[in-house]
């Protein structure tokens, strides 16, 4: 409680002096001070010409300030005065007034005093203009909780909303869905047209997505070209399907950004809560996993998270977490599988095949760890490791007097569509001073279908140095003929799925014959992979195949055994 009584004194001027000092102190305070009695009635503290020095073009008297109150605000003040006296404690409220055609925000602090007027208790109210401070606070909150580009909630704010949504769903026994959206091929647009166009595209995407939101939905920008949506209070999983379909339809119409007309699509992953979990991180990982599954299925579709994906997700993170350890503890190694010329049965090349013997997980199939490395963004490190190993091994074979032969290395589809891939590989080869004609890179049809312009540029750079390039798994893609027409290759590998059906499927035999004939007309060498029987070998020789690779001759073996095979000049019997 504020003591407003003057000090006890016998001097006749002490009260006047005390009031003058108090008046001087109050006048110096850059806040407005009002006095209300216990009825909630305004009492003039000083004469009306006392001015408030706050952030206005001019001062304003306490009376003028109070006169701006409407009935609702006066009642609010009256209730707060009575509560302050009843509780004998400080109370703080905020309110707004229109002053000189501008709305200003104020904070009022109500404090009980022992000063009485006509026997009535009083409350002193200190009012401060907080307009600028509140604006600054709101700006900080905006920066902390909202994305500066799209004005959507950012990841931090989204996590808070998701936590509340999960709690509501569990309490009300309702179904909610989390949608993870990724703009397909956004990186290509960003890289080729510039970041300004990319940023504007994200803004336009956000605007379109907001048009289908319900009042209870939350849309956020998760980062980069990723958006994330919470849909609460769903009737069933089918309603989540309908929302996903609505999102897909939003992008059927091209987006115009400046002078560009952009055809875009989105891949969507969906998980349901609390059915598949109630932990924020878990649900986001699930939706993200489902989104990548949608991308693997060709983009421009949506996929739901399920138990099978949960197992794949667990396997993904388990294997991914071991990569760093594997590199530092030399768990990777390279085996070599011979490629044999069928006219004289000599080894004329080997294919380098990466293997991983994990101390934690045992032998891990490349069918598992290669796709994970691609998704984890470390496939380049694996390719560089293989190329470095191959270059060192070629030198050792040469030093030991082995006849020179070609070593083939597989290239990932991710790498082939990456700018600068060829330059990176050439730098490694030059560092080891390996003759370029001793190396061959194998690429799959699927890799050529993605980022074909960049892939073409990378292949041309490699071939310009005399490095061989072959098309692997031929016949398994959808663009076999167009790939051969557009790109220049040195060799064509018939996929093992065709070879293994020799003598069991006449149509496969016809395909192999046609493939060999077509390759010959294009001056391409033909190699069949996956040869395991004498019958398969005989068929290939009789139909003009140039080379073979498979367990019939040798499985993938360590480099020392390759050396022994070369010395024995082992032949294929037929």
What can be said about this structure in brief?
This protein is α/β, with parallel strands linked by helices and 574 residues long. Helices cover 45% and strands 24% of the residues. It has 22 helices and 21 strands.
Question: SSE layout and pairings?
Answer:
Elements: H1 14-28, E1 32-37, E2 42-43, H2 62-67, H3 71-87, E3 91-99, E4 102-117, E5 120-129, H4 131-145, H5 155-172, E6 175-183, H6 186-193, H7 195-210, E7 218-223, E8 226-234, H8 237-250, E9 255-257, E10 260-262, E11 266-273, H9 280-296, E12 302-304, H10 307-320, H11 323-328, E13 332-341, E14 347-358, E15 362-364, H12 366-376, H13 379-399, E16 406-410, H14 413-416, H15 421-432, E17 439-444, H16 445-449, H17 452-464, E18 468-474, H18 480-486, E19 491-494, H19 496-499, H20 506-521, E20 525-529, H21 534-542, E21 547-549, H22 559-568
Question: Main traits of this protein?
Answer:
3 domains, 574 residues, 24% strand, elongated, 22 helices, Beta-Lactamase, Alpha-Beta Plaits, 21 strands, alpha/beta, 5-stranded antiparallel β-sheet
Describe the structure.
It is a single chain. With 574 residues, the protein is of the alpha/beta class. The protein has three domains: 14-136, PAS domain (Beta-Lactamase), CATH 3.30.450.20; 146-317, Alpha-Beta Plaits (2-Layer Sandwich), CATH 3.30.70; 321-568, EAL domain (TIM Barrel, Alpha-Beta Barrel), CATH 3.20.20. It is 45% helix and 24% strand. It has 22 helices and 21 strands. An eight-stranded mixed β-barrel has the order 13-14-16-17-18-19-20-21, surrounded by four helices. A five-stranded antiparallel beta sheet has the order 2-1-5-4-3. Strand 14 (347-358) and strand 15 form a beta hairpin. Helix 6 (186-193) crosses helix 7 and helix 15 (421-432) runs parallel beside helix 17 (452-464). The protein is elongated, with a radius of gyration of 38 Å.
């Amino acid at each position: 409680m504020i003591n407003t009584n003057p000090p006890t004194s016998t001097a006749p001027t002490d009260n006047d002096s005390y009031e003058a000092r108090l008046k001087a102190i109050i006048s110096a305070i850059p806040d407005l001070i009002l006095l209300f009695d216990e009825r909630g009635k305004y009492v003039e503290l000083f004469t009306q010409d006392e001015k408030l020095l706050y952030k206005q073009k001019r001062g304003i008297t306490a009376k003028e300030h109070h006169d701006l109150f409407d009935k609702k605000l006066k009642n609010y003040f009256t209730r707060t005065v009575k509560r302050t006296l009843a509780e004998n404690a400080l109370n703080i409220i905020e309110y707004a007034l229109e002053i000189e055609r501008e709305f200003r925000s104020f904070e009022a602090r109500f404090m009980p005093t022992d000063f009485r007027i006509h026997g009535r208790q009083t409350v002193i109210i200190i009012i401060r203009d907080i307009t600028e401070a509140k604006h600054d606070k709101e700006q900080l909150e905006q920066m902390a909780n909202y994305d500066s580009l799209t004005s959507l909630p950012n990841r931090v704010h989204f996590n808070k909303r998701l936590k509340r949504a999960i709690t509501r769903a569990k309490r009300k026994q309702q179904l909610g869905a989390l949608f993870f959206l990724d703009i397909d091929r956004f990186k290509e647009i960003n890289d080729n047209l510039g970041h300004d166009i990319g940023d504007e595209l994200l803004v336009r995407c956000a605007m379109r997505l907001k048009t289908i939101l319900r009042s209870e939905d939350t849309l956020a920008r998760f980062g980069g070209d990723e958006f994330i949506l919470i849909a609460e209070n769903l009737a069933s999983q089918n309603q989540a399907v309908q929302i996903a379909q609505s999102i897909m339809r939003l992008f059927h119409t091209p987006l115009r950004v400046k002078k560009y007309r952009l055809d875009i699509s989105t891949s969507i992953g969906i998980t349901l809560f609390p059915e598949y979990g109630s932990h924020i991180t878990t649900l986001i990982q699930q939706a993200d996993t489902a989104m990548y599954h949608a991308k693997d299925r060709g983009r421009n579709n949506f996929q739901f998270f399920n138990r099978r994906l949960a197992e794949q997700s667990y396997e993904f993170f388990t294997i991914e977490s071991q990569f760093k350890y594997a590199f530092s503890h030399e768990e990777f190694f390279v085996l070599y599988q011979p490629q044999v010329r069928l006219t004289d049965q000599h080894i004329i090349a080997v294919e380098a095949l990466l293997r991983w013997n994990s101390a934690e997980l045992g032998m891990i199939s490349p069918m598992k760890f290669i796709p994970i490395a691609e998704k984890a963004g470390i496939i380049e490190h694996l390719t560089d490791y293989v190329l470095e190993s191959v270059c060192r091994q070629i030198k050792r074979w040469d030093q030991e007097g082995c006849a020179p032969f070609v070593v083939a290395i597989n290239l990932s589809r991710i790498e082939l569509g990456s700018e600068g891939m060829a330059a990176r590989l050439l730098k490694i080869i030059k560092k080891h001073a390996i003759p370029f004609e001793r190396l061959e890179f194998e690429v799959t049809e699927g890799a050529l279908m993605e980022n074909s312009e960049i892939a073409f540029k990378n292949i041309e750079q490699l071939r310009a140095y005399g490095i061989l390039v072959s098309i692997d798994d031929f016949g398994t893609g959808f663009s076999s003929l167009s790939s051969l027409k557009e790109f220049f290759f040195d060799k064509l590998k018939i996929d093992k799925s065709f070879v293994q059906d020799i003598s069991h499927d006449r149509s496969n035999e016809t395909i192999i014959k046609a493939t060999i004939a077509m390759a010959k007309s294009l001056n391409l060498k033909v190699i069949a992979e996956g040869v395991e029987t004498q019958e398969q070998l005989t068929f290939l020789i009789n139909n003009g195949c140039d080379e073979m690779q498979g367990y019939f001759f040798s499985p993938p073996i360590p480099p020392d055994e390759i050396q022994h095979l070369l010395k024995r000049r082992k032949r294929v019997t037929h």
